[in-house]
């Protein structure tokens, strides 16, 4: 178990700032500071738990945690979110479903490590995150990935990135109660500057694919609709159940194993709703593969149509969009974006719009205006580029 002072590492001012705040809060220096990013998904939605393909990237918005291991099993958690005070828990008594608010995520990670017979001592933790909460940018996974990176190193567990991905998924599924897949944590842990993470969710193999919007004269806008969602609510789970039913009725291990050409058969076998859920996943997998090909052949400027088709499929077949997301997508498209879609699990959160740099302001203004006219909460609009994955900062 390493016990190095955070100040012994070459952290920048900011990280030393978090370490200093930790010391103020807990009266002792942290063992270190780790960061992990949120993500946007370029394409490949609800394909991960169907053992399919996804193409997300890590963004330059991150969760940072300063952590110090303790000698007992007490966990003390504090954030700069500005709520509550210190949340305390005992690692010897963790039960799935316990923990309030964001504290569920670090506790879920500790619980998942325990399930893997990794001894996790108690710890003090200070969280600071600029990944917007509930915006479909994986704020929860950013926290989990920062925490697991820290605990993996500090306990000497020696987990590879692939194992950390599965452990955080176990924490989300078994402790937090959200039946999510492996996309978000893979982007956060395995992301790389300038690259999208082309992930095969069946075997976790990754190919880093250059994504350079700027080179194509474009920007990737994120439009946070401010409609918040939770994957622990019923919508996500019911989509997942439909996919599992569809695979079973079609006699395949996972929807990944159905080709677009088999959709006619599927239409004969499945009820209408299950068929449309299946059609989304099958065609979305094909779109991911095509996006990867198009990016290599023609760069970011050649994938607009695929983003549009993905949105239509999510809106009409998978039915996980909402009026705010549709308005953001439609307004961005009619004002110059070359492609747009909702990103993430759906039922709220954010859309992405691939937009010529010269039209960025026009698209922003138009989306803001349309939201105001519709009486919706003002959206938050910003650009993202692929950033590095999780790392130790200090
Ligand atoms: C959420 C989940 C992911 C994935 C997406 C939909 O972000 O955490 O595992 O299923 O929704 O693509």
Task: Give me some keywords for this one.
394 residues; alpha+beta; Ribosomal Protein S5, domain 2; 6-stranded mixed sheet; 4-stranded antiparallel sheet; 20% strand; binds alpha-D-galactopyranose
In words, what does this structure look like?
The chain has 394 residues and is α+β, with helices and mostly antiparallel strands. The chain has a domain at 7-207 and 388-392: Ribosomal Protein S5, domain 2. It is 40% helix and 20% strand. It is built from 11 helices and 13 strands. It has helices spanning 13-26, 104-115, 139-154, 161-176, 183-190, 234-250, 263-269, 272-298, 304-318, 323-334, 360-374, and strands at residues 32-41, 53-54, 56-69, 74-79, 87-90, 123-129, 195-200, 205-210, 218-224, 339-343, 350-356, 380-383, 391-392. It has a 6-stranded mixed beta sheet with strand order 5-4-6-3-1-13, sandwiched between helices. Strands 10-11-9-12 form a 4-stranded antiparallel beta sheet. A hairpin with a 6-residue loop joins strand 10 and strand 11. Helix 3 packs across helix 4 (161-176) and helix 3 (139-154) crosses helix 5. The structure holds alpha-D-galactopyranose. Alpha-D-galactopyranose binds at residues 45-46, 48-49, 138, 180-181, 183-184, 231, 344-345.
Give the overall shape, derived from the CA principal axes.
globular
Strand order of the largest sheet: 5-4-6-3-1-13
Say what oligomer this is. Answer: single chain
Q: Which molecules other than protein and nucleic acid are bound?
A: alpha-D-galactopyranose
For the sheet with most strands, the description reads: 6 strands, mixed
User: How far do the termini sit from each other?
Assistant: 16 Å
